[in-house]
Prior knowledge:
Structural class of chain C: alpha/beta
Oligomer: heterotrimer
CATH superfamily of the largest domain in chain C: Thiamin diphosphate (ThDP)-binding fold, Pyr/PP domains
Distance between the termini of chain C: 41 Å
Shape of chain B: globular
CATH class of the largest domain in chain B: Alpha Beta
Largest interface: A-C, 48 and 50 residues
Strand content of chain C: 15-25%
Largest sheet of chain B: 7 strands, mixed
Radius of gyration of chain C: 19 Å
Shape of chain C: globular
Number of helices of chain C: 13
Number of domains of chain C: 2
Number of domains of chain B: 3
Radius of gyration of chain B: 24 Å
Strand content of chain B: 15-25%
Helix content of chain B: 25-40%
Largest sheet of chain C: 7 strands, mixed
CATH topology of the largest domain in chain B: Chloramphenicol Acetyltransferase
CATH superfamily of the largest domain in chain B: Chloramphenicol acetyltransferase-like domain
Number of strands of chain B: 19
Strand order of the largest sheet of chain C: 3-2-4-5-7-6-12
Helix content of chain C: 25-40%
Number of helices of chain B: 9
Distance between the termini of chain B: 56 Å
Amino acid sequence: MATKTQEVEAKGGQSRHRSLGLTDDQALRIYEVMRLARAVDERMWLINRQGRAPFVISCQGQEGVQVGTAAALRPGYDWVAPYYRDAGVVLWFGMTARDQMLSFFARREDPNSGGRQMPGHFGSKRLHIVTGGSPVGTKLLHAAGVALASKQRKEDAVTAGYFGEGASSQGDCHEAMNFAGIHKLAVIFICENNGYAISVPQSRQMAIQNVADRAAGYGFPGAVVDGNDVLACYEAARTAVGRARRGEGPTLIEAKTYRFTAHSSDDDDRRYRQAEEVAIWRQKDPIQRYAKYLRESGTLTDPIEQEISERVEQQVDDATEYAEQAPDPTADELTKFVYKQEPLG
Amino acid sequence: MASVKMPQLGESITEGTISKWLKQPGDQVKKYEALVEVITDKVNAEVPAPLAGVLKEIKVKEGTTVTVGTEIAVIEETAVASSQAPTPTLPRERGREHEPAAIPEEGQIGQAFSSAPAEQPQGSQSAEGRTRLSPAVRALIEEHRITDAELGRIEGSGVGGRISKKDVEDFIGRRAQPVAANGEQRQAAVTAPGPGTETRVPLTPMRRAIASNMQKSKQTIPHAWTVAEVDMTNVVRFRHQVKDSFKQRESVDLTFVPIIVKAVVEGLKAVPVLNASWSDDGVVLHKDINIGVAVAVDDGLIVPVVHQADRMSIAGLAKSIDDLARRARATKLTIPDVQGATFTVNNPGTFGTILSYSIIAPPQAGILAMDSIVKRPVVLDGDAIAIRSMMNLCLSFDHRVLDGVSAARFLQGVRRWLEGFSDQIPLY
Amino acid sequence: MAVKTYIEAIREGMDEEMARDKSVFLIGEDVGQRGGVFLASDGLYKKYGEDRVIDSPLAESCIVGVAIGAAVNGMRPIAEIQFADFIAPAMNQIIEEAARFCYRTAGDFNLPMVIRAPWGGGVHGALYHSQSIEATFAHIPGLKVVAPGTPADAKGLLKAAVRDPDPVLYLEHKRAYRLVKGEVPAGDGVVPIGKADVKREGKDLSLIAYGLMLTYCLEVAEKLAAEGVSAEVLDLRTIKPIDQAAIIATAKKTGKVLVVHEDNRFAGIAAEVSAIIMENAFDALDAPVMRLTGPDVPAMPFNHVLEEAFMPNPEKILAKAKELAAY
C-alpha cells in the first residue's frame, strides 16, 4: 500500500520535507530530537516537584522553532548562541540527555559550567555553543562578534543568536542588529516570540505587532513564521542561512510560538494568564502537529514511533540515573578558573 | 622548652656572673619569680623567670661569668595562660609611669636618667607623643634589648617627640659597646709580656664602663671648673664634739660627707640651675634633688644615690650614705641605688688631695669634689693670722647649662652654709 | 634604545602585535580613518585595512560585546573605548560577560581580548574626560587591569595584554601621552602582567603610585633626596592582579609608605594597598600608611582652579611625603 508520500510523489509532487531538501531520516531525526527535548524537560519538572532539584526552565511548546531552525545549521561548523530555553537547539547541536541532566543537577561533570551555572545556561566550545549567562540580550552582540570573526577569516560559518521578544527591548539587541547590518554579517537573529516575558505580555513590551518589522530599520529582511510548524521554521532558517553564506548579511526570523509551562519552576503562570489560553495553544503543540504530518506523509510509522519512544525513554532514564549518581564539585574548586592564566610568581 | 639567657642588665654591660641559683632543677617556677642572682660589674640583680614552668636544667654554674645572651637555664613551660615570655629586660607598656623595680635596668655611674614619675621627658611636647611606639620601633627594642631607661634617653625626632625607627637605629649605632652575639664565656686575656717591656692588665667590666663614661662625658659636655676655699673650722669643731654620741645613738659614723651633702643641697636650692640637665629643647630643671655620692671600691668607683636628699636631715644623710657605702663595698647595691642622680659629690680628699677636677656624669650639670681638710695659716678679718681648717670645694660644671656666675654663686652658698656652721644647726 | 613618547610606544605596540598575529584587530570609535582622537592608532588603518581596523558605531556595549564574540571565535580583539568616562554602557558586557566567561564555563571558554581606555586628568577634560576607573574594574574577579606609567611599560604591557588569554583592561593615561617620554627597548620588550617595578630605590620611605602619578613621584623623590630623605618609588604597573610581594617588600624595607593616586579616595586602590601592608607588614611599620588621592567629588571640573584643587601634583605629594618622613 502506497504511503501518502509515495502517492504524492506518484502524482509528481513532493512531500513537504523533501521539497525542503530533507531526507526521511533527517525528518525523523528532527522529530526525535523534539521528542527528546520534551521528555527530558518533563522529567526535570517531575524531579523538581519532588524537591530533588531546585530549578527547571522549560523548552516545552517551543521545540518547533528550536529544532527547526537549528536543523538548518551545521553543528560543529556553524555557531549558536542560545538562550536558557533552547534545549532543542543544543540537543540538535550535540548535547545529550546526560549533559542536560548533569546540568540540571549541577554536577561536576556538567559540560556547560561544571555545576557553576543554573540549568539552561548552555556553553560548549567544542560544540560551537556560545556560553550564555542569565542576561539574554547581551549574547546577541556576541553572536555578531562571532560572525565578524568568521568574516575576517573569510569563512562561511553562520551564527544564530536566539532570544525572546522580551530581550528584543534590550539596547544590546538593537546594537547587535545595527552592527550586523552595517557589516553584513552572517548572523541569523531568531526571536522566539512566546507572547510573555515572564508575566509581561507583548503589548507591554513593544508598540508593534511583529518584532520582525524592526529588521528593515537595520537594513536586512525580517520574516514572521509559525513557530509551532517545525518545517516552516526550518524553511525560514534555510533561507536565512543561504543569504548569510552568500555574504548577503543578516536575517531576523520571528517565530510566533507559546510557552506551555510557567517561565520557570519559580514562577506561577496562573497569576498572569488563563488556563484556556494555554489549552488553545496546547492544541497546536509542535510535536503533535509534526507527528501528524509525518504520519500523513508516511514517514512515521507505528514501529518507527515505537522505536523512537523507546530510545527517548531509555535515554532519559539513563541520563537521570547517571546524573543522580554523579559527584558534585568540591569546595576547593570554588577559586579555580577565575583566570585562564594566573600571573607568574 | 624555654631558654633563659643572661640578660643585659644595663647599658654597656656585656657580661654577668652567676652568683646564686635561687631555684634548683625540678622546682616549680612562677612567672616573674626570682630565679637567679647575677652580679655585673656594677650591681647585683635578681633575674626573674620569664615564664611559668619547671626549671629543667641549669646551664651555668655559680661563680661563672658569661656574656650577655648566653643560655643559663632551661625552663619547661607549663600550659598556663602566660605563655609568651617577654625577656625580663623589656617591659612593653607605653610610657614609664612607674619605676619597674623588679626589672633590672642599667646601673652605670651617673648614666641613669631619673625615671621618677614627675620627670619631664626631654624636649617633648606631649608625653603621649613620645610614648607612642610604632611596631617597627617595638621590634627594634626587642631585637636590641633596649631598656626603658635607655628608651627614656632617646630623643624623639618625630611629631610630638615621637621616637621613630631612625631615632632608635641611630641610638643603637651610638651605643658603642659590643654585645657578644654568640655568648661564649670570656677568657681572661693575658698576653705574655714582651721581653720585659710591658704588662697588659685585662680590663674589668667596671674599668670598661668607667672608661666609656668618662670619654663620653668629656666629649659631649664642655667642662668648666671653679674652686672655693672653705673655712671648715666650725664644722670640724662641731663634728668632734658630737661624733661619739652620734655613733652611740645611730651606730654610724658622722663623717664630713653628710654635712657637705647637706650644704650642697642648700646650695642647689639656692641655685637650681646646677640641679639640671642639658637638652636641645631647653635646660631641664629637676624637681627632686638626688645626690650621687662617690664611693671607692676595689677596682674603681661607684656612685650610689641618695634620693630626695633635700628631705633629709644631716643624721638621715649620714645613715643613708653609710648604708650605701657599705653595700657598695659589698657589691650589694641594687639598680635603683645607682639611678637617678641629679648632682654628684665626690670625696677625693680622703686621700689627701687638695684640688681635684672631677668629670661630670651625664646628664648632670655639675659635680663637686671636696678635697682634704688641711690646717693652714689664714688671714682673718682684722688682718689677724690664725690656724684654720681649710678645704677646697672644686666644682666642675656644664658650661652649656650655666655660666661662671651661677657656679660661683652656688659655691658661695655652700661655703657660707659651711662656714656659718654652729651647734644651732639641727642634726635631725 | 630609542626615546619615545608614551603614545608612540602604544601605537608601536599595537602595530607590532598586529603584524605578528593576524588574529589581532582593533575596533572602536574613530580608530580607523582618523587614527583615533588622540592619534593612538594613526597609520594602522592604512597599513592593515578596514577589516582589521574597524570604525565602530557609537555604542560602547556593542564595541565590547562584538569583541567578546570575536574572541570566542579565534580572534584577539583590541576594543577601544574612546574615554574611560564612557565605559559605563559597556559595564554589563565587561562585568557580567567578559569577566565571567572563563569562570562560568569552568575554563572551557576564555577571552583573549584587550579593552583600551584613555584615563586620568590634567588636560582640562572636566567631568567626562578625566576620570579614573581602575578601582571599579579591579574589584571584579576575572578581569586583569593594567595602568602603565612609562613608554617602555606602555608598550610592554600592551603586548602582554594582547597575548594574555584573559580579558585585560588597559588604561593609558591621556596626559602622559605626549608629556611622558622615555627609553623603549628594541625587540619584543614584553612586560609581565602582575609585576610591579621599583623605579627608584630608597630606604627612608616608599612612594607607591601608577599612571601619571608615577612621573610625579619620581620628581618628588629627587627633591626629597636633596633634603636628605631617601625615597623608594614603586610603580604598581598592574592594578589587578596586584603585586602583593613587591608592596610588602617595600613596606618592610622603609616602614613608611605613601600611596598616591588621582582616583577618588574612598575605596580607591590605595585602600587595598594599605590593607595588604597592614596584614602583611604591620610589625615593620614606623608610621601609618598614608594616602594622597583625589577628593571624593564626582570628577575634576573644567575650571583650572578646580582641576588643580582636585589633582595631586608634585607639590602636594612632596608636602605629604615630608609629613610622612617626619612622623
